[in-house]
């Protein structure tokens, strides 16, 4: 089954994978609605680009300080149960958020607290989901399974972000939040129906014999000993660092640079979904034609160029239709590049990490790779008080291109060639 089309048919024959795919799509649809609504709500309530940056930082912070510990805890638990429980908890938390919003007492501090709480729960969900994937997808179908899963998530994100602008304009934030709440509960129910094959109980019993901090330490040691994964972490840190202004200042970008409203925010979300869909669909092709190193270098350079161009035409062009087109094209270029880089690294990670360490290792990997984002978000919030949104984004585009050139000069090891398999020493 080397043909891409045949492989996609093969993974869809797997009952567990189909359910996982449907659950992911439903959950992603709700998230895409919420992403547009919440981003716009933050700016509407606070009228501040600084708060936009701070809340974005709060959205990432739990990935740094909670997820390493969450990954070690999840390693000792039933992964399916963790996914179900965290979906339900996030749904209930949204119910509380909606109640505060309807009471008219919403402010920046409450939004920051809510964001931190939701992402803290996600910190347990993410390593559980990563470890759950290999249990429902055969190893030989893993690359195409991950690609198709991401591609379909992009499709529903495209629909969701496009729908969000209309829903917000016609019905307000209330409807969007209600839909997001329902999607969490539906996704949880579908995951409950998946039957997992394999020795899940034996794996849990084996890990449960280990002390918690030993489990966490081994996850850290595993990544430290795997030079490829460590290099991927460094690259992810740098690219996440440079993408912060685009992610944190979307609403100010729309308002200040393009002089437009939530409609353009939806277009940006839809364009991002298009880039993600194309990237996911083409990852198997890129993996065959490009080495990991070439993928990272080429698309990091393109990412930098797209970032520099994004705010420029919003200032130059005065025709709304052209603004929609130009912003959309830039975002497609940016997200396509990010999809190729992150998708390739994600496949390499899941394919090469020992399944015994995958939850704790993925948690530590995410924590390390996102460590700079909260600090950068705070710095962006401060810089926003003295620099314009367009200046900040252009600076980060230039920094991305510079980083790519430096990466080419130092030539780090990014491809697997005679990597030794790491085994944790036991006493």
In short:
The chain has a single domain, classed as Up-down Bundle (Growth Hormone, Chain: A), CATH 1.20.1250. It has 19 helices and no strands. It has helices at residues 4-12, 15-46, 49-65, 67-74, 79-103, 108-136, 142-171, 173-192, 200-208, 212-225, 227-248, 250-257, 262-289, 292-309, 312-316, 320-352, 358-369, 372-384, 389-410.
Notes on the protein architecture:
By secondary structure, this protein is mostly helical. It has a single domain, classed as MFS general substrate transporter like domains (Growth Hormone, Chain: A). It contains 19 helices and no strands. It has helices spanning 4-12, 15-46, 49-65, 67-74, 79-103, 108-136, 142-171, 173-192, 200-208, 212-225, 227-248, 250-257, 262-289, 292-309, 312-316, 320-352, 358-369, 372-384, 389-410. Helix 3 (49-65) packs antiparallel against helix 18 (372-384), helix 4 packs antiparallel against helix 17 (358-369) and helix 7 (142-171) runs antiparallel to helix 8 (173-192). The longest helix is centred in the last third of the chain and has 33 residues, at 320-352. The termini are far apart. Residues 1-6, 205-210 and 418-427 have low confidence and may be disordered. The chain crosses the membrane at residues 20-43, 49-70, 82-102, 108-125, 146-167, 173-194, 229-248, 260-283, 295-318, 324-342, 363-383, 389-410.
